[in-house]
Amino acid sequence: MAELHAKNIVEYLEEQRQKETLRFITCGSVDDGKSTLIGRLLYESKCIFDDQLKALETESKRYGTQGEKIDFALLVDGLEAEREQGITIDVAYRFFSTDRRRYIVADTPGHEQYTRNMATGASTAQMAVLLIDSRKGILPQTRRHHRIVTMMGIRHIVLAVNKMDLMGFEQSVFDRIEADYREFAKDANLTTLQAIPLAAVSGDNVLKRSENTPWYKGPTLFDHMDTVTVTEVATRAAFRMPVQWVSRPNLNYRGFCGRIAEGSVKTGDAVRVLPSGKTTTVKSIDFFEDQLPEAEAGASITLTLNDEVDVSRGDLIVTTDHPPEVADQFQVKLLWLSEEPLVPGRSYWLKVHAKEVSATVMEIKHREDINTGSHLAAKVLNLNEIAVVTISTTHPVAFEPYTVNRTLGGFVFIDKLSCATVGAGMIEFALRRSTNIHWQSLEVGKAQRALLKNQTPRCIWLTGLSGSGKSTVANQLEKRLHAEGRHTYMLDGDNVRHGLNRDLGFTDADRVENLRRVAEVAKLMVEAGLIVIVSFISPFRAERRAARDLFAPEEFVEIHVSTPIAECEKRDVKGLYAKARKGELKNFTGIDSPYEVPENPEMVIDTSTKSPEECALEVWRLIEGK
Fold first, then answer.
1. How far apart are CA 400 and CA 403, in angstroms?
2. Residues 154 and 39 in one domain
3. 159: domain range?
4. How many C-beta atoms lie closer than 10 Å to residue 542's C-beta?
5. Contact 313, 266 (CB under 8 A)
6. Would you list the DSSP string of 257-271?
7. Which of the following is catalytic: 466, 468, 535, 538?
8. Is the peptide bond before 140 cis (omega within 30 degrees of 0)?
9. Do residues 390 and 329 lie in contact, with contact meaning Cβ atoms separated by under 8 Å?
10. CATH number of residue 271's parent domain
11. Are residues 394 and 503 in the same domain?
């Protein structure tokens, strides 16, 4: 009997292995029945064990919304908060199979607050089941989810018009919703669009054709999912593998681990490492303790190479014949996922495949209207908004457009301070200037210029509220350094706005750009061998950190002039604080615009307890000590 069971299990596993796997997502507005539909799919495909069904019956009595009937939504709404509220919050993945296919379904939230979770589920899906409550029709969140799934490259959509039982299975209701959606989605370049009238709670048109919709002649949901043709880009010939980890268990072994994103590789194949461009050949393809002659897309392997080339995490190992592009400036489509708005000029971590680099949004070209798809002007991006933007990275990145390869063209933005994921995007193409502009090799560098001046170049960055005494301390510091024969230059906030930054205002976006320009100028001055003193309010930690990142260690010295705001207001000869408190002066730091106190400055000074000369002396001693 044991042998028979073992044989049956082996046969079952082999049968499952031979089936094609389809990954799909359920999405739509809140309470459209996504979780109920998935529960019904699991039930109809007989993927619920007896003990699960019994537990579901018990849970339905406690949390259910269907009276004495089974509430299938509870199969996927696993969090306590989800069951109490009757909504989906997190992404839930479930597996089931039919005679023809295996399925992995992502049940995603409908609430606008959890759009980031919905985008996560869509990023790996091949098909989307977009639910619409027949009582409500197409809602703004329906339109938003449509734009996100098409943005993520999904070209197969099932329009599931649900809760038809609550509308008496009226054909006119279904026809109207289908017509409205087809008009809305006509420019989405969809490969397949199948509209199906459903009542997920009772199973109408899920597995079997419903007697309640004799007017509907199309397939059931299961029939359509079993037969829709979904092709994978990864079957193309060009080999690409992002390096996720460098394995070095001993001195005699150095392997490069990763999951093949596209194509196949054989022992002896000629490969190229990007972005360096070095070429070599494959020595072995290792899989645990085995060595494989060949590996294809989707396989997680370790490659060893015949030459000692430099390969690091985030590099790409690719075929030499058709390598992808390498660039550091891109046009991308971006979904913003943070309550803090995206401001051009602010620096974030960009993670694309296994590569992580610092990146800056240079320009928001346009924002998309979720209802019409029209292009709207925008200076910032707010939560859940979609836009086309241009970005610049600090280091070259090997990539392929998202439409060609999701793994190599999809990315996330990560906040440098909180480490939270704040955006998700798709690379459309590299900007031409990215490949036309190169660093010019200079024979006279920073070291030679500094030696000629007999000094160590630095950027001394004073930050604090208006009226804190930054500029006064900076002036005293420069006078002392100049008296010692040091070569200096001072960049003051007001002075710079008369020339370099005269085109900028005082919005958050303009302030970010103001500091980005100043930091770049300060960097050039340090490269020239100067000691540059920067006196700016610079209220945001992110911009001060971005400025620090431009310099070598020890070159950037942050000084927080922490004079209390009450003292700053007393010194306000221009009356700016008074105007700001009356509402006559908008975006004034410390009143209606925040000042983010430095977390780890090199020094903190307070001009309310010490004179500017004493403060400047303390800064001078710090610099001399360095």
1. 8
2. yes
3. 2-227
4. 20
5. no
6. EEE--BSEEETT-EE
7. 538
8. no
9. yes
10. 2.40.30.10
11. no
Q: Within a domain: residue 396?
A: yes
Question: Which residue reads 């955006």 in tokens?
Answer: 423
Which of 197, 227, 257 marks a domain boundary? Answer: 227
Judged on CB neighbours under 10 Å (0-12, 13-18, 19+), 566 is exposed
Contact present, 239 and 265 (Cβ < 8 Å) = yes
Please, which residues bridge with residue 357 across strands? Answer: 350
Percentage helix, strand, coil, to 5, in the chain? Answer: 30, 30, 40
Provide the percentage of residues in the chain whose pLDDT is more than 70.
Answer: 86
Task: Give me the mean pLDDT over the 155-173 stretch.
Answer: 95
Contact 185, 177 (CB under 8 A): no
State whether 79 and 216 are in the same domain. Answer: yes
pLDDT 10s digits, 304-353: 999 989 999 999 999 998 889 899 999 999 999 898 999 888 889 999 99
Same structural domain, 346 and 399:
yes
pTM, full prediction:
0.73
* Residue 17 three-state SS: helix
CATH of the domain at 23: 3.40.50.300
Residue 57, token pair as written in the block: 């019956």
pLDDT score, position 16: 65
Which amino acid, residue 464? G
Between 455 and 58, the more confident residue is: 455
Among 298, 319, 340, the domain boundary falls at: 319
- Structure-block tokens of residue 580: 């700001």
Q: Does 436 reside within a domain?
A: no
Residue type, 269: D
Beta partners for residue 535, in sequence order: 462, 492
Where do runs of H (alpha helix) occur along 431-469? 432-436, 446-453
Average pLDDT over residues 49-77: 57
| Model pLDDT, residue 96 | 84
Using a CB cutoff of 8 Å and minimum separation of 24, what contacts does 65-70 make? Answer: 66/201, 69/201
Q: Looking at the structure, tell me whether residues 122 and 271 fall in a common domain.
A: no
CA distance 37 to 293: 44
Amino acid at 100: R
Please identify which residue in the block is written with the tokens 């009542």. Answer: 199
What would the pLDDT profile of 2-24 be if each residue is shown by its tens digit? 454 555 767 766 666 678 889 99
333 and 482 belong to one structural domain: no
Per-residue pLDDT at 623 exceeds 60: yes
**Least reliable range by pLDDT among 39-48, 87-96, 137-146, 342-351:** 87-96
Give the C-alpha separation, 111 to 118, whole Å: 9
Cβ atoms within 10 Å, residue 423: 24
Judge whether 441 lies within some domain: no
Q: How many domains does the chain have?
A: 4
Residue with tokens 């046009």: 331
The verdict on whether 276 is a catalytic residue reads no
The residue-averaged pLDDT of 471-496 equals 92
Token representation of residue 168: 């008496």
- Asked whether residue 437 is domain-assigned, the answer is no
117-145 pLDDT tens trace: 778 788 888 999 999 999 999 998 889 88
Is residue 135 within 8 Å of 102, Cβ to Cβ?
no
Q: Are residues 143 and 96 part of one domain? A: yes
Q: Are residues 89 and 196 in the same domain?
A: yes
